[in-house]
Amino acid sequence: MHQKALEDYLNTILEVTRFRDYCPNGLQVEGRTQIQTIVTGVTASQALIAHAIELRADAIIVHHGYFWRGEDACLRGIKRQRIAALIKHDINLYAYHLPLDAHIALGNNAQLAKKLNIAIEGSFGEQAIALHGSFETPTTLRELNTNLTQLLTRQPLIIGDPSKSIRRIAWCSGAAQHTFEEAISLEVDAYLTGEISEQSVHTARETGVAFISAGHHATERYGIQALGEHIAKQFDLCHYFIDVENPV
Ligand SMILES: [Zn+2]
Question: Which superkingdom (predicted)?
C-alpha cells in the first residue's frame, strides 16, 4: 500500500487530532512510497531499526518515536545514527504516542484490560487516557502479583498489603504515576501504571490504595502489537512485532 494511505488510515482510526501530545503523531521519517512489510515495537531504538533492516521492512510503527517536546532539535549523536539508518535503508517511521494509549480497542490501556480480564467502566485523568473498572473475579493483591508476573512476563513492584482484596482498579500505561491521586478519588482498591516515584510509596501507604508499578515497557507492548496485527489483516501486509527487552 502507499505510504500516505497508511498514514491517513492510522491518523483516522487513532483520532490524532483529538490529542495535545509531546511529539508529532504520524509519519515522522519518510522512506519508500510502497509498503508491504511492517515492523512494530515500543520504541524506535537502534536495536529495533536493526531488526527492521534485517527483515527488509518498508515501515516501522512505534509508540515512542522521535522529536519530543523540549529535546535538542539537532540531528546529532544517537538521534543522527538512528535517522541516518532509516534514511539509508529507505524505511518509513510512523509514531503514535497518546492516541495509541487511548484507543478504545487497540490502545495500550484497552489491551491491558483485555489481558488482565478487567471490565472497563470509564476513563479519567489527563485527556481521559487512564481507565478504571472492575475485575470479573475479585482477587487479592498477592494473587494479582502472581497473575501480573505471568501475564506481563515481568515482576511488578507492588506497594500494599498482599492480603488486600482487589475489586476496583484504575490503570494507565507508561509513566503515569502522577495520576495516582486522581485514581484514589475514584475509590479504587489499586492503581496500576508502568513506573513509580518515591512519593507514590507514601501515598499508597497512607491512603491504603495499592500502587502497582508493572513496567513502562511491559505495559506498552500490547497497543502497538494490536495495531500492527489490525493493519496487517486490513491491508494484507506482512507484520513482525519485535519486543526489544527493557527492564524498566
Ligand atoms: Zn511510554
Answer: Bacteria
